[in-house]
Each structure stands twice: as structure tokens, then as C-alpha cells.
Amino acid sequence: MARRAGADRQRRVGPAAGVVVLVLGAVLVGAGGGLGLPHLAKVGWSPATVAGLLALCLGVALVAVGIVAGVRAAHGWWRVPAALGLTVAALLVVDLVAVPVAATMVPADPGDGRTPASVGLPFREVRLPVTRGESLAAWYVPTRNGAAVVLLHGSGSTRSSTLRQAAVLARHGYGVLLPDARGHGASTGRAMDLGWHGDRDVAAATAYLSSPEAGTDPGRIAAVGLSMGGEEALGALAVDPRLAAVVAEGATGRQAADLGWLSTRYGWRGQVQEGVEDVHTWLAAALSGLAPPRTLADGVRRGRAPVLLVTAGDRPDEGYAAAALRAVAPARVEVWTVPGADHTGGLATAPAEWERRVVGFLDRALRPVE
What are the AB hydrolase-1 domain coordinates in residue numbering (predicted)? Predict the structure, then answer.
């Protein structure tokens, strides 16, 4: 019996080794969950799905081993806080890894098959050249009033998710260009669900709308973006003088430097979250090979066009982010909060008011030059 007990103790993982196992397991859970679960939801079973789910399962087992080792190293009632502390630490590591993995290893999404014809709009297919031989797939609904809008979808979706907004804008005569973001839908390239390709991709869209083929008037081009698309449009303001107006709905931030308002609003909890976002940004840059983009505040500051920020009443953080952006250029930035709306739910929640405010803003900003 003594020999058996000694062998059991030797087989146990010590506290130091348990920490290593715990961290390794949490990294695997984050990487596996960030890769496997989105791929399973979007494309079903694939090599990426299988690899991610295997890493997830192995990671869960290792986290369990690490927590058990830590609890065994504690004594008496200290085992309860030890178990809680190790669990919280594991969850933090999972979050640090899962968010950038999910944002940079995006599964293909062909869309839901709908086109502008599904909402009664005439359109044509176009390709927008971007960098390194890549191109964006887009639909163009021709203008009837000489002005046009780039309509940008959010992360994890495609151009078909913005058809309701396109129908409203087209009803008022606006040309509407609906691109798939890079690596999404029928566009080529590697997807990045934090919107870091946005400056160049928006420029490709405005270049098309400025061409004779689009039939628009010079100086009457705007961007309307939802979530990631709104953040892309705000960033593009700094480098694309063709944008005469921007409507951004549900924009909060696409990198850590956009979220300095967290500590102001939430104190020490906000400071912790800002630290987490720093790691998210650093790891996303390492995984994607991209440098973090300019901040949204820099886009607003350096741009000259008027901006309408639409925020969801049920998402206070959107209001805090909008207030920080409005402070950068209060003379050019308007904020409309939609009571009772969830993220990018302005049109669904208040359709008549969304149409009145958004179209009215565009009408003022894009009125013909006399």
C-alpha cells in the first residue's frame, strides 16, 4: 500500500507543472474554439473544423488537469479560492486567444443567396480591384439622383445582410454599391473581421463610384456602414477625400487604441478591459501579418466630411464610443440613439425614423453643387 501511494504521488502533476498545463490548455481552448466553432457554424465539417474541435477538447482536458493540480497543492479552505482563481485565469487566457483567432481565421461565408432583385432593385455585378491581385465582389444599384452610397456590412456577414438598407436608400434615388468585404462572400483575399482592410477596400469602392461607369456626380459619394462596416468608413475618412459623408451604425472600435473611453466610464474594470484589448490587438496583428489600422478618432479628426453616428439604445457602449468620437469634431459629428434597438438594429426597430434621419442627413450632405 505504501508503494502504491508513493507511485500515485509521483504520477500527480505538481503545482508548477500544473500552471504550465493550465495555460497550455487554455491557449488550446481559445485557439480551438476560435477556429472550430465558427467554422462548424458557417461551413460545417472541414479540416479546420476538425482541427479546432480537437484542440478545444484537448485544451479542456488540460485545463481540468491544471486546476486539479492547483487545488491539490492548496490546503484546507484555501482550495475553494484556488479553484476559483485558476478557473478565472483560464477563462481570461481563453478570451485573450479566442477573440483574435476568430477575427483572423474567418470561415468562408457564401451568403444566403439573396440579391438586390430579392427586394425589387435592378443591379449589376461588378468587381473592385484591391491589392495584390485581389478583388471585391459587389452589386451596384444605379443612381437616379446623381449621388451614390457605399453600403458596408458588418463582421461575420456578407453584402446580402444590408439589402433592407439598400432598398431604403435606392427608394430615394441613391445609387448603392454593396461590396462583400475582403475574404467574405464572393470577394477574394483573407478575411479579417476587425475591419483592418477597410481603408483600402473603401477606397476601391469610392474609386468605382467616381468612374464614368457609375454615373455619379463628383463630390456626391457617401458611405453607410454597419458595425465593422461603419468602423471601416470612419477610418477611411482620413485618407479618402471622395467621401462627402459617412453614416456609421454600431461602431465602437477595431483596435485597442479606439477604446480609451473604457477606463473613463468603468474605472478599474475599464482599465482591465483596455489591457485585454491591447493583447487582442497585438495577437490579431501577429496572426494576420497586418499592422493595426488608424484609430476611428484619427479618421474623424483628419476627415472633413460630416458624420452621423447611429447607436443602439440597448447597447450603452455604443453611446460611450459615439460621445468620444463626437468630442473630436463636434461641429461635424451628429449622434442619434435609437431607443430599444440592439446592435445595428436601427432600421428594424424604428424604420420610419431611420429613413427620415439617415436619408435626410445624406440629402443635406450630398445635395448638388450649384
Answer: 149-353
